[in-house]
Write a structure and sequence with these properties.
globular, two-stranded parallel sheet, 71% helix, mainly alpha, 239 residues, two-stranded antiparallel sheet
């Protein structure tokens, strides 16, 4: 790995950008777990009708962010964000569990029944999401860096799409298997939801490639990074 040499000012800016990306990643992950029970459908130019959980809308953002971090900050920093996301998910699950246990007042706009209807399956959703998330994100990061080494830092579109396509299939398959096994989704819906979820994620992965290129271009230009060069925050901090 080629490590970029940064000034103190640039190093502090790089740390702030990393924290912002990490915050966006965690927010997208936690929100996707909270809103997953609402489903919607839309017609894709008459070619295919998607049936999806709204939880899928912020989830692809997490893969875009880990690809940006992987490209600019390296594999270790990407894995650290993934691990932080696990703790954030568990913490949010604990908050929801406690909130469910506290009885609502008679005048509360949201009753216990309504609260449990909306958030009652969140614990199962978070568990299923975390299992799928662990497999998918670590697979995504590993494949991304495999292609990065193989292409010597070139062809960013190749590693972005190849890593995301496989990891998104693993994610969609795993979370649906777990939700169906726990009785949250009927098994007869499995195949349709798997196809819709995977195709949607493939389309989003292809569509986010320009955004990945734009983000990497801006960061490389700002910090003077060459192709294949990464910012090692931990190494720089020890100087």
């Amino acid at each position: 790995m080629l490590v970029a040499k940064l000034t103190l000012k640039d190093r502090l800016l790089a740390q702030r950008i990393y924290l912002i990306l990490g915050a966006l990643f965690i927010a997208s992950l936690v929100v996707s777990n909270l809103i997953f029970q609402k489903f919607f459908s839309f017609d894709f130019f008459g070619i295919y009708t998607f049936e999806l959980s709204v939880g899928i809308l912020p989830y692809p953002i997490t893969f875009l962010i880990t690809d940006i971090i992987s490209e600019v900050y390296g594999k270790r920093k990407a894995n650290q964000v993934v691990t932080a996301g696990i703790f954030a998910s568990v913490f949010s699950m604990g908050i929801i569990y406690v909130s469910s246990a506290v009885p609502a007042t008679e005048w509360s706009p949201v009753s216990d029944a309504l609260f449990n209807k909306v958030f009652g399956a969140t614990v199962v959703a978070v568990f299923a999401s975390m299992m799928a998330y662990l497999l998918a994100q670590y697979i995504d990061i590993s494949i991304f860096h495999f292609w990065k080494r193989l292409t010597k830092g070139k062809h960013l579109w190749l590693r972005n799409n190849f890593s995301t396509f496989l990891s998104q299939f693993v994610d969609t398959f795993t979370v649906l298997v777990l939700l169906c096994s726990f009785g949250k989704i009927e098994w007869h819906l499995f195949a349709g939801l798997l196809l819709s979820g995977f195709l949607f994620k493939v389309l989003v992965a292809a569509a986010d490639t320009p955004f990945l290129y734009a983000a990497v271009y801006v960061l490389r230009r700002r910090f003077g990074l060459k192709i294949g060069e990464e910012i090692d925050l931990e190494k720089e901090e020890t100087k």
